[in-house]
Amino acid sequence: MAISRRNLIKVGLAAGAAMSAPSVLRAQAAAPRTLRMVKGIDLRVFDPIWTTTNITADHGLAIYDTLFSVDSKFMPQPQMVGRWGVSDDKKTYTFELRDGLGWHDGTPVTAADCVASMRRWGQVAPGGQLIMGRASDISKKDDKTFTITLKEPLGLLIDILADVTPPCLFIMREKDASRPATDQVTTNVGSGPFRFNEALVRPGSSYTYDRNEQYVPRSEPFDGLAGGKIVKVDRVIWDNIADVQTAFAALQAAEIDYWEVPAADLYPVIEGDPNLALQVLSKSGSDAYVRLNCLQPPFNNVKARQAILHLIDQEAFMRIMAPNYGRPVISIFSNDNLVSNNENTGWYKKGGDPEKARQLFKEAGYAGEKVVILDPTDWHEADNASQFLAAELRKIGINAELAPSDWGGVSTRRAKKDSVENGGWSMFISTQVAYSFGNPLISPGMLASGDKAWYGWPKNDEYEGLRAKWADVETLEERKALARKMQAIWWDFVGDVKLGNYVGPIARRKTLTGIIGMPQLIPMWNVQKASA
Predict the structure, then answer these.
(1) Closest Cα partner for 278 from 252, 304, 260?
(2) Which of 381, 400, 504, 506 could form a disulfide with 393 if both were Cys (CB 3.0 to 4.6 A apart)?
(3) pLDDT digits (tens, 9 = 90+) for 476-500
């Protein structure tokens, strides 16, 4: 099987082919005060609590606000909160909202909105679940003040509130946040620096955000995702251009300003264009990994999950997903976090070990069951990697089948716990920023709590018992020791399988400046355009 993007662009022909591609934007350069962006995938889900998908989190970052955020050193800083304090016994936290906070519908933000939002977020976010488990009460004191009362101290509480790993604690109106986290919020009314323009929504084509003229930013200079959110454009349009040639042609013609996931084989062409630049926003990069459905055959058998661990050739996957930008990763805590380690990593072998994988599938009693791989065709690198994964499985006798759809289809189908015969799935590829793996309290992919875990639903009580201790260990050395114990168990029951770590640059026109480089989320404030 040829491992290439469907209708793969050859580097030597890329420039000419892209220039001849038809423009979906009618060859009109974006206006100076309008920023046009091509995001990595289409925006299909608008509720940033219901899903962990990055594009939905970016949508949330634009229209909602947060109680706290993190600065460039990943230290928590107040955002919607004006003042806060903690009692002497470290069990009661009191928060007072800053002045000037208002919803896009003209009503003021209240403490009741914050309490409802926290309770909804706490149903699904790992860190939120921890807070809810420790809390004896979360309630409003008056219109601008609310409290969190804990049964026992939680020193990481503010860090958890500020964390930027989706689902982030975006504050919604009380009437929206009163929905269960399993039901999607259907409105897009926030208090953030941008308003979502419902009138200009073109499903599958474009989404428009207008500067919120009533937004009152903090007075401090921006620092990472903290400080003043100063919007320097009037409008931002997310154009959905799935075709690589068309997106590249639009970038060259100044019809778009920003391309979030440029095709890896176009990197040399982009770097050779004097008007374009590649820019790495997240220096720690992301880990790519395979999630396995632990509830359904064959991966409800640990031997089958271990087989995938041995099958994977990380170097090959990185050549497909991020040529010259990838490297192997063997720690569940990623490569460069303070608690990254090499415990129980004897399974790693350069090139993988297909024969060992074949043997383990046999020991698992595999009898030809269909293995369905969710294949996001609009995320080209994952599409290529999914095809490669299917090919590698077939080589060792596994009945692998691709289920192609856009990422919106993947994010919907992956929530199904049914068998593949009833619309379920067996495997899918995803990514998560590397820094978030440094804290298993907030990383959804690091849970092993069965039905309460992230998609794939791995379950291991011994691992979860260790993970629960993370909130209470006080020193880095204690945390490192705990991390080694957790990793030793994880690689035995195989909660997921790493494909590698990579940095993926965005592509932009050089007239576009001020993009804030942080992991996970991409803000649209501080960005500005110079005249071409």
Answers:
(1) 260
(2) 400
(3) 999 999 999 999 999 999 999 999 9
What type of residue is 522?
I
Q: Residue 29's pLDDT is what?
A: 56
Radius of gyration of the chain (CA): 23
The number of beta carbons lying within 10 Å of the beta carbon of residue 174 is: 17
Which amino acid is residue 73, in one-letter code?
Answer: K
Residue type, 300: N
| pLDDT higher than 70, residue 457 | yes
Instruction: List Cα–Cα distances, 127 to 176, 326, 439, in angstroms.
Output: 21, 29, 10
Q: Is 251 helix (H, G, I), strand (E, B) or coil?
A: helix
Could you tell me which residues come within 8 angstroms of residue 191 by beta carbon, excluding any fewer than 6 positions away? 64, 65, 80, 101, 102, 103, 104, 109, 171, 215
Which of 237, 236, 238, 217 lies closest to 228 in space, CA to CA?
217
Residue with tokens 């082919």: 17
Position 442 scores a pLDDT of 87
Considering the chain, what is the average pLDDT of its residues? 92
Q: Which of 282, 281, 232, 223 is nearest to 78 (CA)?
A: 223
Output the CA torsion 69→72→73→79 (10° steps).
-20
Say if residues 206 and 200 touch (Cβ distance below 8 Å): yes
Angle formed at CA 288 by CA 225 and CA 294, multiple of 5 degrees: 115
Asked whether the whole model's pTM tops 0.90, one would answer no
Q: 3-state SS of 484-516?
A: HHHHHHHHHHCCCEEEEEECCCEEEECCEECCC
CA distance 344 to 13: 46
Cβ pair 235, 208 in contact under 8 A: yes
Distance CA(306)–CA(116), nearest Å, equals 41
| Residue with tokens 């039901």, as numbered in its chain | 183
Give the tokens for residue 63. Answer: 């229209």
pLDDT at residue 24 above 60? no
| Residues whose CB falls within 8 Å of the CB of residue 367, separated by 6 or more in sequence, listed in order | none
CA–CA separation, 238 vs 522, rounded Å?
Answer: 13
Whether residue 397 is predicted with pLDDT greater than 90 in this model: the reply is yes
Burial (Cβ within 10 Å: 0-12, 13-18, ≥19) of residue 302: middle
Predicted confidence band of residue 204 (pLDDT cuts 50, 70, 90) = very high
Query: From CA 30, how far away is CA 22, in angstroms rounded?
Result: 17
Does residue 324 surpass a pLDDT of 90?
no
Given a cut of 80, whether residue 40 has pLDDT beyond it is yes
In the prediction, which pLDDT does 532 show? 60
